[in-house]
Amino acid sequence: MADSTSSGASTDPSQAPTDQRSRWPGRRALWALLPALGLCVSLGLMATRNSEVWQRELEGALVLAREQGKPLHVHFSRSDVPLAQAMDETLALEPVRQIAQTHFINLRLDARSQSELFQRFIGSAGALASCIVDLDASGQPDVVAVLPGYQDADRCPS
Hints:
alpha+beta; Glutaredoxin; four-stranded mixed sheet; 17% strand; globular
């Protein structure tokens, strides 16, 4: 016995009248395009996710800053410094992360391998620091704020 609806019509698509089955002849093409659509969506999600990730090199971060019209938030750290993990945890807090992602291009650098840049941006030697770098009229980095060392989020001014 064939499936039927309460009106007695068959629910089997092969039993549908020819005009209903051929209403949209490109439906097979749609099935062929679904993997490509999935790939596009995946790439879009990856691009969104990558925009949330810390940049790892100055030149690329400067390009993004110019393109997006945002200042850089440069974070210097060293994995061998005990407070570095606490600083990373503070930067991962949702309110801090949201502000950083909304208003800045975020750049994370190793203070040891980037010691000359640390000295240039922070004005001293060290292991932990953050600074805000804007681009001047000629597109050159201009440090506008510096926070040497580490400050717990609980001690930040509201």
